[in-house]
Amino acid sequence: MTSSLLSATASDSQAEVGARVRAEFPPPHYWRRWTADASGADPIAPSTRTDDPVTAPKRHPAPDAAMHGMPGDPAPAQGDEPPYRVLVVEDDPSQALFAESVLRGAGIQTHGVRVSGEVMAAMADFQPDLVLMDLHMPGISGTELTAMIRAHQDYALTPIVFLTGDNDPEKQFEALESGADDFLGKPIRPRHLMAAVYSRVKRARLLHRQRGADAARHPVSGLYHRAHVLQSIAAAIAAQASGAALFVEIQAANLLRERYGYAGFEQLMNDAGRRLAQAAGHHPCARLNDNAFLVFAAGAGADARPPLATRLRDGLRQLPFELGGTPQHLDAALGHGEVLDASDPVDLLDALEQAARQARTEPARIAARVPRSLPSDSQVQLADALRAALQDGGLELAFQPVVAVAGGEEAQFQALLRMHADDGSLHRAGALVPAAEAAGLMPDVDRWVLEQALDLMRRRREEGRPLRLFVSQSPRTLSRDLHAPWLVDLLARLELPGPSLVIDLRLEDALLHSVTLRHFSEQVLAAGVQLCLSQYAHGPDADALLEQLSLGYLRLSPRYSDAHADPALRDELRGVIDRAHRLGLQVIGPQVEHAQSAAMLWMSGIDLIQGNLVQQADDALDFDFQHAVL
Questions:
Q1: Lesser CB count within 10 Å: N end or C end of the chain?
Q2: Do 322 and 461 fall into the same domain?
Q3: Domain range holding 262?
Q4: Nearest by Cα to 112 from 92, 82, 138, 139
Q5: Predicted confidence (pLDDT) per residue in 233-269, tens digit
């Protein structure tokens, strides 16, 4: 580590007092000597003031009061404004403790992070006003962390200040280029630290307020942005405040897009959004994707939800929309629910989308959120074992080759989750995933799988044997705001090409969570990460999904592997493959168990196959792709 942040303060205290005073454990009321309320009713005893020069009544103007007109009491904010929040990123415990003690002594809320890999999660949970960071962090450097933070739009205005003893101008310039705001040199006196924190946080909050009103709304439609409404819902859940959320899905979106083209469809959806906002009244309304909207009615109880849903539906239905001189009527399916019935906005949004899907079959086109069923005892036990496996390394990956029917040298495998039980039996993903979802463990499991997969890809690339991996992820994980930026940054740091990673999505999940999955695909598309829609079977909704998601691969339902015995199913298979090829997708035939199925898939135009006929899944990666030709 660089020169100690404690040295100047500790030596000053020793010179004044003539005794050892540990800077990380200051004497009582030490911080009040440079805060604005330090005079008058100061509870420090007179004998302490005269005997202890550190707490003597010499007064330093509080940085916030003298420079910025803010009180020095433990709430450095004006009116009802919440206390300032500072995230301290420092791996040295003594230096971290010093900085946190200084800040807390002035009434600032702090949260310390010692491991660089935990910073982005802390940003999401703590929502700091300022990040105070050491430049030289192990694992991920301060410069890399700054780039990760700045890659997230929610933290564009969050000040990032480096606290470092490194005087190398090149290092400082590199950090500033990555998005940092300033440097504070070690060692630093408490009043200088506080002055820097107060001034930057006050300016950032003022700028945020100035931009907030305009930034919260879309400049064309006037609707609130998606993030604003979801953050409002998150705040209500955290405060245990009741409220209603309503998911509105415009029907026949694909037909409307084909009829009016992209520009006409956008105009129609903007008009529909304005109509919904008018029907919602003072409740904020946001557009979620091409044809879905979200309304949040804070404080609305169970009795208020159905009338509000009816008002939103009728607001779209009753009057036609004028487009190109032609009247166009719109219909919508609505799902509604209580925000407190969900654990977080992602959980709520997924449940509302499912309710809206159910509403399509209802005469009124309105359906309430269906509460989740409780996990079974066996799922609870399996979740406990899975939780322990995440801690002690009990999870593992198996790999099954995905082989081009025309041959080729490109190595590509599907990664499959496995866990060994205490009795020696093997738990597969089919049992692990439902248990993890019921226990809320899927984000941790998915992140572990991705980290293992990308590390394997890095090692193989360094060995001159690159490969592509198909990795399954749950929609709840992909919908988390920080997951996509974390993945893109990890690929960049490992210097892995995006197309070498394919994210596997089940058709059932994609249909139920299309809104959140489209948002994820937009974020990772620029990095080259591809998506594969798995367990695909022909159907109106499934076919429409092919054009809504940015896909690179289509893995068929296993039922098509037996199409050789069913002429109608064989014709359907050919139609699915032809449609996929017209969209530029490569088609994978899964669970191929015998040569007859492989031959039928090959004659239907399949691109790749996998299954036990090719090779069973295991932990080896030694398949000979070069000589594998169907």
A1: N
A2: no
A3: 226-368
A4: 92
A5: 988 998 899 999 999 999 988 888 888 888 899 899 9
